[in-house]
Design goal:
Strand order of the largest sheet: 1-2-3-5-4-6-7-10-11-12
Order of helices and strands: HHHEEEEHEHHHEHEHHEEHHHHHHEHEHE
Structural class: alpha/beta
Oligomer: single chain
Distance between the termini: 22 Å
Number of helices: 18
Strand content: 5-15%
Helix content: 25-40%
Radius of gyration: 22 Å
Length: 529
């Protein structure tokens, strides 16, 4: 999953985080450790809910905004049939790729009312016989499938057209719009783990204002942006490319798309690979912050073995890092005209953990520089994770992540978010503390969709891949996803980083390619190095 934005850090316990494909350095596509942290923890006093309007009375709806996001178009005639009769008009883009746009209903229950735009990219098959289309998704929620096509590990899969699309609400498809860049920058600088009433109030008010701006600039789109809506879009795309069955590979949040698809359209499932599985159960005993705690602990042990300057033992390295975070809470480090705050530094460190061992040496060096007073590299890592460009503009994912996550999620309000934060800190003393309370979804302006547990009953075999050291989607989620999906088959990678297929493990790559090309289903429970 991709980024840990200011809002993302606040909602990590409630929403699925940022998916990214295997890589050695933090990437914006992606998307927000063991001994007790020393960061200040709230005394147990719950937030003052009088700071927030009565959500049941004052929560805005689509009728409160007449916003027309880019890509809103007139609906084709003929109801849903009008959409399935579209022709994909591919044109060359980016040299060896092709691009196209299609329309999808804003609301599948009322297809004649309003259409939105979906943008696609394709890397055409180069070998025969052609096997059809392999749809790919990098996660997020909100990562660009079009961009994924340009760097997807397609070696061995040349018999497929590789097609990625920007899901509704994201990037070149009809996008969610919220704050302007200046307001977004200010939002990222709020303290995500408040330890006094003033910081708590600032976080609540800032989050509320962010949610209001998304409603103001995105309107009805926010009410039709759930994963179920995206699954309906994916099946529409399957029909438009002419495939009888869906072949799909999704990373992180993309595994939610795939598992939901298997539940909604089980008879259309062909070959599905779900890599870096998210939690699709209703069991919250394992939270995302636990994955980041584990990964940071693994880094600390490695760093000590490498005789890095951060400490001579795992515990010493962790103490160096958490002490640094706590110093930033009181005194942010200046990087040019910007502050490296505690929240920004935490997201910067998290960014490197996505990359696994290849990124650890860079993380060690950049932490060393930050401790010496130069936080430039750590700030840039956070920017990449927050989808912030060098010119100060922010990408689509910063806004689509909460819009999709909160549409899918379920919350019991701001007070429960504060109480959950206390529990999270017990489960994950470091990142559970610094990620802070999940206020975003309780303050969001659209209600979540109906909750369900996908089982994919009747679907063909589904391959679920999990890495034991994954920071963003803890390995246990892959175990439970494979178990809950009736046709799920688990492939375990004993290693670090977020997302495995694509050059990290020759064993995993071989199993996935053999499955996608030849239909050979891996042995359930197989383990790879």
């Amino acid at each position: 999953m991709r980024t840990l934005g200011r809002w993302a850090v606040a909602t990590l316990a409630l929403a699925l985080l940022a998916a990214c494909v295997p890589q050695q350095t933090p990437s914006p596509s992606a998307p927000a450790p063991s001994p007790s942290a020393t960061a200040a923890v709230p005394s147990g006093e719950v937030i003052d809910v009088s700071l927030v309007p009565n959500l049941e009375v004052d929560r805005p709806t689509s009728t409160d905004s007449n916003a027309q996001p880019a890509g809103f178009e007139d609906a084709p005639k003929g109801g849903l049939a009008g959409y399935t009769k579209q022709q994909l008009d591919w044109s060359t883009c980016g040299g060896k790729y092709e691009c196209a746009e299609v329309l999808a209903p804003l609301d599948y229950a009322n297809p004649d009312d309003q259409a939105i735009t979906l943008a696609l990219a394709k890397k055409a098959a180069t070998k025969s016989p052609k096997l059809g289309t392999l749809f790919v998704n990098p996660g997020g929620p909100g990562g660009s499938g079009r961009n994924l096509v340009t760097y997807f590990a397609s070696t061995g899969l040349e018999q497929y057209d590789i097609v990625g699309w920007d899901p509704r609400g994201t990037n070149a498809s009809t996008p969610v719009k919220c704050f302007d860049d200046e307001e977004t920058q200010a939002f990222t600088e709020l303290d995500s783990s408040p330890d006094d009433p003033a910081e708590t109030e600032a976080l609540i008010v800032g989050t509320w204002q962010f949610a209001q701006s998304c409603r103001e600039h995105s309107g009805a789109l926010l009410d039709h942006i759930s994963t179920v809506d995206t699954v309906r879009d994916l099946d529409l795309l399957r029909q438009l490319v002419g495939d009888e069955k869906l072949t799909f590979l999704g990373y992180s949040y993309g595994t939610q798309i795939g598992s939901y698809y298997a539940d909604v359209f089980p008879q259309q499932v062909g070959r599905l690979v779900l890599d870096a599985a998210v939690d699709i159960t209703d069991d919250d005993s394992v939270i995302q912050a636990m994955g980041f705690d584990l990964a940071l602990g693994n880094f600390a042990a490695w760093c000590a073995r490498q005789k890095c300057s951060l400490g001579s033992s795992k515990q010493a390295v962790l103490k160096t890092i958490t002490d640094f975070f706590d110093e930033l809470d009181a005194t942010p480090l200046k990087v040019g005209d910007r502050p490296l705050t505690q929240t920004i530094a935490v997201s910067g460190v998290a960014a490197y953990l996505y990359g696994g061992i290849p990124a650890w040496r860079t993380l060690s060096n950049d932490l060393k520089s930050a401790l010496a007073g130069d936080g430039t590299r750590l700030l840039k890592a956070s920017d990449r994770l927050n989808d912030r460009n060098e010119d100060g503009t922010f990408g689509s994912l910063f806004y689509s992540f909460p819009a999709i996550g909160c549409a899918d999620g379920y919350d019991k309000g701001v007070v429960e978010a504060e109480q959950r934060w206390v529990i999270d800190q017990q489960k994950a003393p470091i990142f559970g503390t610094y990620f802070g309370p999940g206020y975003t979804c309780p303050l969001w302006t659209a209600r979540s969709t109906i909750q369900f547990k996908p089982t994919g009953s009747g679907a063909a075999p589904i391959v679920v891949v999990g890495a034991t050291g994954d920071p963003a989607t803890p390995y246990q989620s892959a175990v439970t996803m494979a178990k809950q999906l009736e046709s799920g088959v688990l492939v375990t990678y004993a290693g670090e980083g977020h997302g495995t297929f694509g050059g990290k493990s020759t064993c995993v790559d071989r199993l996935v390619i053999d499955y996608l090309v030849n239909g050979t289903v891996p042995t359930d429970g197989v383990k790879c190095q």
